[in-house]
Amino acid sequence: MAYKVLKYSLLKHKIIEKVNNEEYKEGDLIPSERELMDMYQMSRITVRKAIDDLVNEGYLYRIQGKGTYVRSDENSHDLFSITSCTEDISNKGMIPSSRVISSDVIKAGKHKARRLQIDENDLIFKLKRVYYADGVSINFTTTNLPLSIFPGLDKYDFSKTSLYSVIENDYGIKITHASRTLQAVLASEETAKHLDIKQGEPLILFECVTYGEVNGKELIIEVFDCCYRTDVHKFYINQVR
């Protein structure tokens, strides 16, 4: 057993060394498990253990069906900025896209009504989407907005247009600020399916309440829950003294 631990630790060290020396650059696809097995004469179990550790430690990330890549700081997001996912991805020089999982008009119910500060029988627009950057899934977002503020919102195709662009340009509502909470969670079966990851993988869950100026008053205009993949995305806080 000690021999196996030594071998996978040695492989980890070699890969980290190549990353630090930029033999494997940020965003590069590293050799496959089979190639690493042949290169270092190690078993699949040993190679997989080394790769799993490097993914968990933030050196690498996997894309299902494509391989394992060197992690980059490019896919990071300022926790204090209020931008749409589309804007955030575009600002990083990547191509944004999204897939609508479902879009429905439903009654708010007690929980959503409390978060949106509306009546539980009021109608809301519920939108579920997966966001992609250069074709790689980034997050799974469920958004709820009151139809009393956004009548006809369900007529838009949000796989082709930005929600925040519609809010500001078509409805003339200025987004003022947002309140966010975040926590570490494990991917549910539904979330894992939509993000092409394994159930139980670690994610960062954002719960957000967004405020906007509506007819001269500041009101809650949106609540959303957003699960970000931690293997391909980082967050940072920009502080100034």
Give your account of this protein's structure:
The structure is a single chain. With 241 residues, the chain is of the alpha+beta class. It has 2 domains: 69 residues, Arc Repressor Mutant, subunit A; 161 residues, 3-Layer(aba) Sandwich (Chorismate lyase), CATH 3.40.1410.10. Helices cover 29% and strands 36% of the residues. It has 7 helices and 10 strands. A 6-stranded antiparallel beta sheet has the order 4-5-6-9-8-7. A two-stranded antiparallel sheet has the order 1-2. Strands 3-10 form a two-stranded parallel sheet. The N terminus is likely disordered.
DSSP E strands, number: 10
Distinct helical segment count: 7
Indicate the radius of gyration in whole angstroms: 21 Å
Principal-axes shape call:
elongated
Strand residues, percent = 35-45%
Kindly report the name of the CATH homologous superfamily of the largest domain.
Answer: Chorismate lyase-like
User: What structural class do helix, strand and pairing data support?
Assistant: alpha+beta
Predict the CATH topology of the largest domain: Chorismate lyase
| Low-confidence blocks of residues | 1-5, 75-80
Outline of this structure?
With 241 residues, the chain is of the alpha+beta class. The chain has 2 domains: 69 residues, Winged helix-like DNA-binding domain superfamily/Winged helix DNA-binding domain (Arc Repressor Mutant, subunit A); 161 residues, Chorismate lyase-like (Chorismate lyase, 3-Layer(aba) Sandwich). The chain has 7 helices and 10 strands.
List keywords for this structure.
alpha+beta; Chorismate lyase; six-stranded antiparallel beta sheet; Arc Repressor Mutant, subunit A; 2 domains; about 240 residues
